[in-house]
Amino acid sequence: MSADDVRLVKRCQRDDPEAIRELVERYQGEVLGLCVRLLGDRHEAEDVAQEVFVRVFRSLHRWDSTRPLRPWIMTIAVNRCRTFLARRRKRPEVREDLGNVPARSGGDGDGELLREIRQALEEVRPEYRIAFVLFHEQGRPYEFIAQALSRPVGTIKTWMHRCRQAVLERLKRRGMISEVGHELP
């Protein structure tokens, strides 16, 4: 918890436009980046990020000023993404004709591996993907992820293990690796 955060929140609660702008500017990059990684679509992520800030401002009166503001906001972002992903699973999916989309990396092996990992993440349970992204791409500790997802640390570790296994299995099936940790020549 920082005194600066407490002052900023109090100003936001008084509808100070400068404070509202400052809070959004301070956290928008991190919130949007997380939403893009979890949802895989920039336009959807922008919509969800806006929802996050609407929720933040509606809920500021419930923020516990003895706790840091950043994890509280990021927890709201994770929860909004989870809700969006649950709704997305229930709607029919529309896919573009991928044959008309040019390849991104022009044969770059690392780019191909990265695409395979991203595709594998799209196929795992959303909560596994969220934990994976928070840990590996956002650098969040297990305790933060557990708090954000309202689950015990042990559950988060189990999800991470299962997610890594699913990614490794896909990479093996696709011929990207032959053994765990050993790339093919």
Structure notes:
With 185 residues, this protein is mainly alpha-helical. The chain has two domains: 92 residues, Rna Polymerase Sigma Factor, Chain: A, CATH 1.10.1740; 78 residues, Winged helix-like DNA-binding domain superfamily/Winged helix DNA-binding domain (Arc Repressor Mutant, subunit A). The protein has eight helices and two strands, in the order ααααααααββ. The protein has a two-stranded antiparallel sheet with strand order 1-2. Helix 6 packs across helix 8. The longest helix has 23 residues. The protein is elongated and about 60 Å long. The termini are far apart. The C terminus is likely disordered.
Per CATH, the architecture of the largest domain is Orthogonal Bundle
In CATH's first tier, which class of the largest domain applies? Mainly Alpha
Give me the count of strands.
Answer: 2
Report the CATH superfamily of the largest domain: RNA polymerase sigma factor, region 2, helix turn helix motif
Summed up, the domain count is: 2
Percentage of residues in strands: under 5%
Shape: elongated
- First-to-last CA distance: 50 Å
Largest sheet: 2 strands, antiparallel
Helix content: over 70%
Helix and strand sequence: HHHHHHHHEE
Low confidence ranges: 92-107, 180-185
* Average predicted confidence as pLDDT: 83
The helix-and-strand class reads mainly alpha
Radius of gyration based on Cα positions: 19 Å
CATH topology of the largest domain: Rna Polymerase Sigma Factor, Chain: A
Count, helices? 8
